[in-house]
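IclR family transcriptional regulator, Cryobacterium suzukii. Tokens?
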Amino acid sequence: MTRSKVPAADSALRILSHLATQRGPVPAVTLATSLGLPRSTVYQLLAVLTERGFVVHLPEERRYGLGVAAFELSTGFSRQEPLSHLGRPLIAQLVDRLGESAHLVVLHGRDVIYLVEERAPRRPSLVTDVGVRLPSHLTASGRALLAALPAAQLRALYPNAAAFSTRNGQGPKNSTELRRLLARVQTDGFALEDGEITAGMASVAVAVRDHAGWPAAAIAVTFPQENIPEADRSVLAERVGDTAAELARRIRGMQSSLAGGSR
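Tokens:
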């Protein structure tokens, strides 16, 4: 990942992202340790974020949690749906080329949320309708996103075995199994899920990275297992990767436009 040219902004966003993954407010010391930031920096940033309403301070508990302004950002995203608008035509084109269903997802805590779902003609219905949430470690798209996260962020998301839900008794059940799986994703350049969400169906996914190298979204193609042999799934991943690269280019263009407009 490229080093941020605005360290304070990067650290503030890391604090907000970390708080969003927690089940409740956390101490500032825990934030500093989890993110590898100086305590003084964390306290300074928390003071600004609290003043702006993005963080709420609970003085009796000496803990910090997300504030109302952070919630307003999430609802604003839901209203504007920028990724959906950018990604929907690309997902539709991918479905037309491959003849298999495809979708666009984002990471939210330990889940993925489906923003776009395009079902190919004469293909079975899937559980991945728009707005559906699924455990990221069980889905191809989620694994593609998790494999692109820094190790510290991954540890924060999966601190212990209790964080690992299962479906049909399949999927990684602890941090060791997850790290082994994600190492394979990093080596291959794509993620695979084979019958772990829906029996008889498989998925191949690739992460979409923004200008800073952060996984902004993931694109996945889902298909009946017998339609694409295992030996051919790397070829399918290349096609998905081409679409992911194009969406990444459009996201970077949007970010550049927003940055230019704010000067």
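The radius of gyration is 19 Å.
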